[in-house]
Amino acid sequence: MLSEGLFYDILRQALWVAVITSVPILSVALVTGLTVGLFQALTSIQEMTLTFVPKLVAIVAVFWISMGFMTQTLGTFFTTTLIPLISGGH
């Protein structure tokens, strides 16, 4: 039986892994959005695709670059934490 403390510890670790894996994409989306917003404010261009396309391209590029890191982080969490718990060796 899974104890309450162990459950919350695993939940905390899972949330931390989610934060770590999402930081590269979210930070690039933020920086790109701020840059495009500043550019739009300076030039008075209010085109919706101007905000969407660069952000999408930046997010896809960073996702492609950091995919190995994300896969390794999630795989490590799964093999070191969840598989031993599932097999009963906690």
TrEMBL record:
The chain crosses the membrane at residues 15-39, 51-70. Keywords: Cell membrane, Cell projection, Cilium, Flagellum, Membrane, Transmembrane, Transmembrane helix. It is a multi-pass membrane protein. Pfam families: Bac_export_3. It is found in: Cell membrane. Signal peptide: none annotated. Its main location: membrane. InterPro entries: Bac_export_3. It comes from the Bacteria. Belongs to the FliQ/MopD/SpaQ family. This is Flagellar biosynthetic protein FliQ. It comes from Ruegeria sediminis.
